[in-house]
Amino acid sequence: MCVPPAGAPLIGRLGGGGKGAVGDAVYLHDAVAVRNEFLFRPPARVARFIVSRLADERDAPIAFLFFDIVVTMVPAFVALFAIAPPSHLLGAAYVATFDALYLQRFILAMHYSTHRRLLKRRDGLVAAFFNRVNILLLAPLFGVPCGVYWLHHIVMHHVDSNEIRKDLSSTEGYRRDSVTHWLLYWIRFTVGSWVELPWYAFARRRYALCAGVIAGLTASVCAFLRLYMVNPTAAIWTLAVPYVVSSVAMMLGNWSQHAFVKVDDDGGRDDYRSSVTVLNHPDQQRTFNDGFHALHHVNSRLHWSEFPGAFVEKLAEHGANDAVVFSGVHFMDVGVNLFLGRYGHLADRYVNVGQPKRTREELIAMLKERVQPVKVKTKTS
């Protein structure tokens, strides 16, 4: 049995807690782990200037990551268009290298810097512009169309909270252990969001948002076509391929985050029962504590650095609401193991923090039940 790191709080035990299903004690390593969100710090003078402009100094890792991307990935992006003759090999190396280094980190940095502004308001229009650089200029480097993230994530996903027929990225209508269902889910997002997102805003009379997302999508297409005319090979590898890669990553991530869903008989929903929590995995230190997803839906304004402490404080709520909590796996692991039917593997990594006690067989049955499509009840007059 591994010795827990100093200062890591005890949060529960592996297993369902029932007969024969009480495993090792689980400590929250994430509370004391060394952060790994950015690759290198800017020069000291630059770092001090950046930190002085931040609305919250705890967001220095986000700002430093953006700096890393600007000084490494942007020059490589430009170089691909300048190299003659065009090279598919270099294009593939570009995608593989920078996605491995940055994609996971950037998606979550963009995520949290969209929920909470990065720079101080007092810097006026300059701050307002740079607070949008993440979704306007950096996001397209990773295949996320210009300006669409705000509408998709903040306005839609957190308001409608994965509810079927409301949230366009809802997982509820699909069987979450089915590769076929996930492919349908991914295709709908990859193709359909170009029409569905503007319509979502328009139908809710959010006309400015509708116009903004149409402008962003149009700008993304125009930029691709213009760059394709300059260098087709480079345009494909810098814009088209990243769009496919990021759509797979983001949709598999969201699928896994909302894989286990329990809806009340009256249609009521609870964030603890519709979101998965994953702990004690190295990805936590690269993704700004993204594993505390239920807590993020409970309070989307909570700072990412506060999640471990808040999780310990709200253990009772996780238990009372029968939340699904895993240790030693991250979201992609959850999705892949569901596709492979490895419920036993997930059950062995389930953490009981106060949920109803279950045997291993009962725990597996519960997990299988929660991945089934949610049936929408039709209202009778």
Give the percentage of residues in beta strands.
Answer: under 5%
Structurally, how many domains make up the residues?
2
Helix content: 55-70%
User: What low-confidence regions span 5 or more consecutive residues with pLDDT below 50?
Assistant: none
Mean pLDDT: 94
Radius of gyration: 22 Å
Number of strands: 5
For the terminal residues, how far apart are their CA atoms?
Answer: 59 Å
Give the oligomeric state.
single chain
- Main β-sheet description: 3 strands, antiparallel
Number of helices: 17
In N-to-C order, the SSE pattern is EEHHHHHHHHHHEHHHHEHHEH
Characterize the overall form: globular
Biggest sheet, strands in spatial order?
2-1-5
What does it look like?
This protein is mainly alpha-helical. The chain has helices spanning 44-53, 60-82, 88-115, 124-130, 133-138, 149-160, 179-203, 207-230, 232-257, 271-274, 283-286, 293-298, 307-313, 315-320, 331-339, 343-347, 360-370; strands at residues 10-14, 25-27, 276-279, 324-327, 351-352. The strands form 2 sheets. Strands 2-1-5 form a 3-stranded antiparallel sheet, with no helix packed on it. The protein has a two-stranded parallel ribbon with strand order 3-4. The longest helix has 28 residues, at 88-115. One of its GO terms (biological process) is lipid metabolic process. The chain crosses the membrane at residues 62-83, 89-108, 129-151, 182-200, 207-228, 234-252. It holds the Pfam family FA_desaturase. Keywords: Membrane, Transmembrane, Transmembrane helix.
